[in-house]
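REQUEST ID: PR-0412
SUBMITTED BY: lab tech R.K.
PRIORITY: routine
TASK: structure prediction, single protein chain
INPUT:
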Amino acid sequence: MELTWHGHSTWHVTVDETKLLIDPFFDNPKTDLEPADVDTPDYVLLTHGHADHIADADAFADATLVATPELASYVESEFGYDDTVGMNIGGTLECDDAFVTMHRADHTNGIMTEYDVDAGMPTGFVVSDTMPTKEADGESRTFYHAGDTGLMTEMRDVIAPFLEPDAVAVPIGDHFTMGPWQAGVAVDWLDADHALAMHYDTFPPIEQDPEDFEREVRATGSDADVHVLEGDETFTLEDPV
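STATUS: complete
OUTPUT:
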């Protein structure tokens, strides 16, 4: 599984032959790419409807869109998608080689245009190469994109024991989401092998030193490997040995 961070909360995830793009927003200082430079995804996954997560979704309207029913309906009508899938919290969708499970995030989700739109609950996504089951699968590879969220006990009580993420991407920017110390606790609770920082340095209120995040992870006692990626850098989640 290849995980490429394009800055902010934008990730290009490749599972075998399937390409997923999460929260396309390329107007951020961590990437040198324009949407046209990005490999065309098979699926676009949107965690919520704020502009810094959907602004470039219109550039990928040939893909299949996955979001809450409310947000999928909005994007379909505004951005010209022909193929949308509305799913909801707790559901798992088979996306060719990938399995996408939607989980809630603690955030807001209004779309403020000339008319206010309720885009449903904000979410995160757990992406795996096998169907999640209660029976542990040591052969699976699983990535959790937490979305815009504050610290929530579901990370410890549900996502870690039942969805078993191997790598987690958590927001560290503070102000609108968790900051470094809460993100450090989240990594500890999620019990993942790899932690990746996102949603920081895009705007002045969320400027952060990612080394603070790494220190906070260590302070919890977590032994997760913390990866601070450069924009457009890829982390490969290797097959289990």
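NOTES: Residues 170 and 197 are 5 Å apart (CA to CA).
REVIEWED BY: pending
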